[in-house]
Amino acid sequence: MGSRQDFVDYIVEQCSRAGHIAAKKMMGDYCLYCNGKVVGLICDNCLYLKPVEALKPKLIEIIPKSPYPGAKPHFAIEHIDDKAYLSDLVQTVYHNL
C-alpha cells in the first residue's frame, strides 16, 4: 500500500525536537532518520521505531510488530500526536544505537 506523503510529513514534524529528522523513500515506504542514523520506518501509514531496550519504559504501549513481511519486529507507535513524547522516543532510539 505504501505511506501517504502527508502522513510522512506529519511524522517528521512531530519528531522534529529530537534533532535533524528526515524520511527517505525506500521501496514504497520510508526510513526515518535522526541526525543521519536510521531510527525507524514508516510503512503503510504506521510509525515503527527500532526496538532498543531503553525505549520500553517510555512507551505507552509496547507493540512489537513487523513493519513488512519478513522484517524483524519493531515497536509500532500509535500515539503520534504528542510532539514532545514522540521526539523523546526518537531521541532515545538515536542515543541507544
How do the strands and helices of this protein lay out in sequence?
Elements: H1 5-14, E1 21-26, E2 29-34, E3 37-43, E4 46-49, E5 64-65, E6 74-77, H2 83-95
Antiparallel strand pairs: 1-2, 2-3, 3-4, 4-6, 5-6
List keywords for this structure.
97 residues; alpha+beta; Yope Regulator, Chain: A; six-stranded antiparallel beta sheet
In N-to-C order, the SSE pattern is HEEEEEEH
User: Main sheet?
Assistant: 6 strands, antiparallel
- Name the CATH superfamily assignment: YgaC/TfoX-N like chaperone
CATH architecture: 2-Layer Sandwich
The structural class is alpha+beta
- Averaging pLDDT over every residue, what do you get? 95
Q: Rg from C-alpha positions?
A: 12 Å
Q: Which spans of ≥5 residues are poorly predicted at pLDDT below 50?
A: none
Strand content range: 25-35%
Q: What is the helix fraction of residues, given as a range? A: 10-25%
What sort of overall outline do the alpha carbons produce when their principal axes are compared? globular
Distance between the termini: 29 Å
What is the CATH top level name? Alpha Beta
Molecular structure report:
The protein is α+β, with helices and mostly antiparallel strands. The chain contains two helices and six strands. The chain has a single domain (5-95), classed as Yope Regulator, Chain: A (2-Layer Sandwich). It has helices spanning 5-14, 83-95, and strands at 21-26, 29-34, 37-43, 46-49, 64-65, 74-77. A six-stranded antiparallel beta sheet has the order 1-2-3-4-6-5. A hairpin with a 2-residue loop joins strand 1 (21-26) and strand 2 (29-34). The longest helix has 13 residues, at 83-95. The chain is globular and about 30 Å long. The termini are far apart.
